Amino acid sequence: MRLSTPAQAPGLVRRRVAAGATAAVLGLAAAVGSGLGTSASAADSSTLTGIILGVGADESQRIVNWYSSADTAQLVQLTPTASLVNGEFPANAVTFDAIGGANIASSGGFNRHATITGLKEGTAYSYRVGSEGNWSPAYSFKTQDFEGDYDFLFFGDPQIGSSGDVPKDQAGWQETLKVATAANPNAELLVSGGDHVETAGTETQWTSFLAPDELRQVPFAATIGNHDVGSKAYEQHHFTPNTDRSGALYANGNPSSNTSGGDYWFIYKDVLFIDINSNSYNTTSGGGGDAAHVAYITDVVNKHGAKAKWKVLVFHHAMYSPASHAKDSDAKVRRVDFPTVFSNLGIDMVMAGHDHAYSRSYAIKNGAKANPDEQPGAADVYPGPGGVIYVTGNSASGSKYYDITKPDSSASSGAGNGADPLNPDSFWYNSVQNQEHVRSYVKVQVRNDKLVVENVRSGTCAAPNASVEKGSWCYNTPADQPVGSIVDKVTVHPYQGNGQNIQVNVPNAAPGEFGWTIDGYNGLVDLGTAEEHNGDYFSATGQINPIVVSDSRRSLAPWSISASVGDFRDGDKSFSGAYLGWTPKVLEVGAGAQASGSVSSAYDDNGAGLSVSRGLGWATQGHPRGTAKLGADLDLKIPGSVEKGSYRATLTITALSS
User: Fold this and answer.
1) Which residues form the Calcineurin-like phosphoesterase domain (predicted)?
2) What is the SS3 assignment for 455?
3) pLDDT at residue 34 in the model
4) Is 93 within 8 Å of 55 (Cβ atoms)?
5) What is the DSSP letter of 226?
6) Residue partners of 280: CB distance under 8 A and separation at least 6
7) Please, which pLDDT band fits residue 465 given cuts at 50, 70 and 90?
8) Which of 155, 215, 382, 492 has the maximum number of C-beta atoms within 10 A of its C-beta?
9) Structural domain boundaries of the chain?
């Protein structure tokens, strides 16, 4: 009796699985599983408004906020834009449950927010909010590389309604966002300086503020201004990540009151952003004042500062600015409470609004000019240890401008507003001051070895510019200072310490691959002629053709090789593959390979033998990369009742890897 397995075609038989592709398939299943929410039991007719795309805790997250006219279960639905078919979301689009509650009476309706997680870099996504049968229009955003250089855009006080003409203010705000994002199509964040509206609880102003579609396309990092704080509407429209809403961070110490508050932080690529509610700056009204913010900022920097190369602090009330608010008593309090703390914590830049004029400070250390010789308007600044740059944004909408004020006889350090010895018309702390009654925004280029800060004109004296349209002066000359021209530009070079920092950028590693090969020529495994044993059974032995396993994947994910055999056949005669057993072994060590256990012939144990899938070899998570060779000794025992013949069977090999 001759027994054999059939030959394959000559040459190598190779099976490969790209680690990246496998990971992508499994990742999608996890994202869908983790992202699936409970949809509304039936289609509702909620009106969905005020949709805004907010920042998440990191690059892989976004938070979507919106209003609903009805208190129904709602979702965010997300899919790669490339998966849309004729504008329709595919059946496997991921969903994320929304939460929220009833709005304050003056707002009406209900607020909702949902956190999108698991975003992949370099991907265009489309999303919509609502429920089955009642979806909002679809909006799109794109992620970029999760490492390396990027730009963000900072906007001072839109303060919609401040001019007394909401449509004009909206037009200016929309135009600034349009101009800024068109000029910087790859900008990855929009950062607010606060005062989104004139009256905190007036929803018509919020509706105008939220009108630009750019707020649904680029993630927005909100900041509470003094005109935003007096209502829950700010919190209803802006749910922020990692937010501490304890009483100490509210001006009145009462988070359940009809006010907004809280501090939050997030990391985006190489920047740790910390955003605080500067409306709470003293303890007379019940809040924790500046001391509570100092504790919060210190805790965040101590826990998360080492994860980022840059630390940017954002709040509304500018400490060092050029107009009338620079002399406010609360600004002077902050100039005592904060500067030394910020210097000691290594804050690189503080960005604020409130004073409706542009300024860029000298490097300030411990409440004084860090380098007395730093020149006004310097194009390159080297802050040194503890030096902090303070930037104040002008109006992004044109609703209101404040004129620059003159220094007084107070001190030229600390809380004083004395003159700059190098430029007596400016406050001692400001390197650049500017007011043209022209809309502008600040562009920040985040680079490995520098921050590049530019104040950019987003308008001219012409409409939309509500303040000028209603009679305020404007000295801008469009021919010389057109939209997109630069008011101020500075490159901030970080302090590298007493040593020398060495940096290298590491790109994404090639995903590698996992595969197996039948070693050499895949010839017939011929077990020869079976030997009879006293008429009870026949036996034959041999070895499988060795299998070479290679794994170069960065993930070092576990893998396994298994096999099963069908029935042995000769024409219309056959016997079960269960009578074949084996003893796997590692012929050449590598890739963390370990041999699976022996399997007995069914003749010995009445089991299933190799008629069911059995392990040949495997490796655990974290195994080394490399190559291994697996083999197995075959043990075939056939009942003596089987008829004479030349029987063949096929051994089917399967590889699994996560």
Assistant:
1) 152-358
2) strand
3) 27
4) no
5) T
6) 248, 249, 250, 251, 261, 287, 288, 289, 292, 293
7) very high
8) 155
9) 44-146, 147-492, 514-657
- Do domains 147-492 and 514-657 share one topology? The answer is no
∠ CA 439-443-447, rounded to 5°:
175
Phi, psi (deg, nearest 5) at residue 167? -60, -40
Domain 147-492 bears CATH identifier 3.40.50.300? no
Distances (CA, A) of 236 to 339, 467, 595: 32, 29, 59
Tell which residue, 474, 337, 327, 317, has the closest CA to residue 392: 317
pLDDT of residue 483: 97
Mean pLDDT for 157-176 is 98
Kindly tell me if the per-residue pLDDT of 2 is higher than 70.
no
Q: Is the pLDDT of residue 207 over 50?
A: yes
The pairing of beta strand 271-275 with beta strand 310-317:
parallel
Cα-based distances in Å from 332 to 293, 317, 336, 415, 426? 16, 11, 7, 5, 17
Coil, strand, or helix at residue 622? coil
d(Cα 560, Cα 405) in Å, to the nearest integer? 74
Structure tokens at 219: 């993630």
- Taking the C-alpha atoms of residue 397 and residue 400, their distance in angstroms, rounded to an integer, is 8
Please state, in angstroms and rounded to a whole number, the distance separating the CA atoms of residues 571 and 358. Answer: 92
* Number of Cβ atoms within 10 Å of the Cβ of 104: 15
| Chain centroid to CA 324 | 38
Which class does domain 44-146 fall in? mainly beta
- How far, in Å, CA of 131 to CA of 112, rounded? 12
Specify the DSSP element, H or E, that contains 331. helix 329-337
The stretch 239-252 carries a mean pLDDT of 98
Provide mean pLDDT across the span 7-19. 34
Say if strands 559-565 and 651-657 run parallel, antiparallel, or are unpaired: antiparallel
With a cut of 80, say whether residue 499 has pLDDT above it: no
Q: State whether the Cα torsion 482-488-493-495 is positive or negative.
A: negative
Tokens standing for residue 128: 């919509």
pLDDT 10s digits, 604-635: 999 999 999 999 999 999 999 999 999 999 99
Q: Is the pLDDT of residue 436 over 90?
A: yes
Q: What is the mean pLDDT of the chain?
A: 91
Residues composing the chain = 658
Q: Where does residue 546 rank: exposed (0-12), middle (13-18), buried (19+ CB within 10 A)?
A: middle
Measure Cα distances from 487 to 191, 206, 358, 442, 458 in Å: 19, 29, 9, 10, 11
pLDDT on residue 554? 81
pLDDT of 502 > 90? The answer is no
**CB burial of residue 45 (10 Å; 0-12, 13-18, 19+):** exposed
The span from the CA of 629 to the CA of 552, in Å, is 15
In our burial notation (b when 16+ CB lie closer than 10 A, e otherwise), range 549-579 reads bbbebebbbbbbbbbbbeebebeeebbbbbb
pLDDT of residue 194: 98
- Of 304, 282, 287, nearest to 246 (Cα)? 287
pTM of the model: 0.76
User: Given the structure tokens 């469009």, which residue do they identify?
Assistant: 478
Closest to 66 (Cα-Cα) out of 106, 104, 100, 96: 100
Q: Residue 213: what residue type?
A: D
Q: Which fold has domain 514-657?
A: Immunoglobulin-like (2.60.40)
Q: Distance between CA atoms of 397 and 169, rounded to whole angstroms?
A: 6
